[in-house]
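Task: sequence design from structure.
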């Protein structure tokens, strides 16, 4: 039976509703991991380092999609909760059309300036050449990548999370199969890796356009619209926290690479890249849960259903807390086999990465509440608090600890930086939740 945003959510119904976005995010993380596996094992350590230098740049640009998707979803779900369905579709259409225009311009800029961007990141010689090849192909498909990020959120708002999962699986399978063909069979090297990723993104970005352009039984469809400046501003401010999160993650990844290059050289960059690939799986669960609950929160906020908001708040916090402990234990237990997927060919790299991941994974116990807390305020159309949590968590705290901790603890300081920054962010998140509880849940 189809679950609607207006339903009362028991634990069972809530988990059933969020399972599709969770699996969708896990699927996306897995086909990113497949890229890393094939590049590391079939192309080599230097191309793998090149991918890890360029990927934060591509992900940073892709934050446009996260911002418009999460912020727009909050506005549209609230509008749907107010019963204004046609207006919601006009807002939805405007955001999609604008995203296409903006992403095309960004793609042209990135393609044109990829060489100086790569050089600024410290790439020289063979590493620079690999960065340019990978980066140019990735920027060609940037429009599709940005649309893919937007539609992840809008499918949930349209009450079609399962369809989003199916499209993500299609995109993931496309990417994985082409990775094998292009690198393991055709030996196209890093160009094959980039091309496989680009074609997978085309599936994830273009199929939703086709779906929403045609008559469908979801809450949303593409229609004629006009420019709504206030709605665009509201969507961007609401989604600023998610943009800050992802953009900050990209900037911090670059800082990690600089620090690791000084301390451990190319091995350090490769080790961090592997940890990030494995981290994607665990983070995907928190992000997927937050993505799944946000439209429900936004809808009930728009409908002024404060009893249901309290219900969602209580159940979500408990689920996130239990999940954080469980994921930390799983990460500690499975560190060696997970790392071996990427670094079995190099014992020094394997040892360094395995040790680093065991320290890094302590953060999983803390980060779920922070990720969900920021998304919760986005869904309540409070972009300022949401952005503050994200800005402190993903940029300010991390930059401070990444710079300071290695002075005292060397490379261990780098691996523990995420733990300290998430702990600091947890204090901020809890304070905001407690301070605003009466405003949103007891009104």
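Answer:
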């Amino acid at each position: 039976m189809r679950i609607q945003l207006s339903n009362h959510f028991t634990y069972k119904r809530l988990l059933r509703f969020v399972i599709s976005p969770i699996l969708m995010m896990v699927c996306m993380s897995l086909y990113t991991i497949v890229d890393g596996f094939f590049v590391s094992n079939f192309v080599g350590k230097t191309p793998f380092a090149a991918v890890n230098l360029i990927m934060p740049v591509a992900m940073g640009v892709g934050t446009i999609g996260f911002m418009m998707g999460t912020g727009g979803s909050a506005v549209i779900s609230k509008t749907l909760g107010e019963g204004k369905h046609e207006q919601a579709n006009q807002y939805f259409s405007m955001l999609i059309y604008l995203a296409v225009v903006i992403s095309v311009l960004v793609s042209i800029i990135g393609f044109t300036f990829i060489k100086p961007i790569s050089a600024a990141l410290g790439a020289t010689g063979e590493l620079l050449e690999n960065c340019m090849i990978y980066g140019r192909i990735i920027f060609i498909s940037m429009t599709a990548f940005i649309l893919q990020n937007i539609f992840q959120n809008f499918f949930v708002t349209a009450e079609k999370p399962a369809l989003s999962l199916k499209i993500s699986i299609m995109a993931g399978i496309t990417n994985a199969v082409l990775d094998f063909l292009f690198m393991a069979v055709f030996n196209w090297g890093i160009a094959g890796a980039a091309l496989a990723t680009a074609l997978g993104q085309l599936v994830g970005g273009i199929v939703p356009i086709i779906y929403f352009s045609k008559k469908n039984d979801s809450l949303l469809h593409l229609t004629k619209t006009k420019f709504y400046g206030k709605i665009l501003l509201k969507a961007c401010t609401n989604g600023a926290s998610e943009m800050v999160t992802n953009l900050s993650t990209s900037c911090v990844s670059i800082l990690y690479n600089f620090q690791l290059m000084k301390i451990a050289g190319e091995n350090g960059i490769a080790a961090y890249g592997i940890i990030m690939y494995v981290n994607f799986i665990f983070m995907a669960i928190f992000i997927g849960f937050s993505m799944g609950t946000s439209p429900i929160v936004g809808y009930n906020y728009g409908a002024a259903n404060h009893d249901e908001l309290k219900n969602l708040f209580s159940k979500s916090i408990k689920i996130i807390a239990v999940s954080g402990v469980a994921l930390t234990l799983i990460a500690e237990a499975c560190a060696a086999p997970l790392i071996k997927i990427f670094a079995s060919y190099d014992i020094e790299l394997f040892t360094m990465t395995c040790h680093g991941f065991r320290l890094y994974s302590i953060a999983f116990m803390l980060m779920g509440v922070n990720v969900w807390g920021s998304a919760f305020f986005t869904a309540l159309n409070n972009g300022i608090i949401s952005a503050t949590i994200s800005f402190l968590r993903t940029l300010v705290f991390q930059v401070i600890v990444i710079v300071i901790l290695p002075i005292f603890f060397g490379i261990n300081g780098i691996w523990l930086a995420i733990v300290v920054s998430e702990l600091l962010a947890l204090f901020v998140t809890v304070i905001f939740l407690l301070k605003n509880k009466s405003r949103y849940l007891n009104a």
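The chain has one domain: 11-441.
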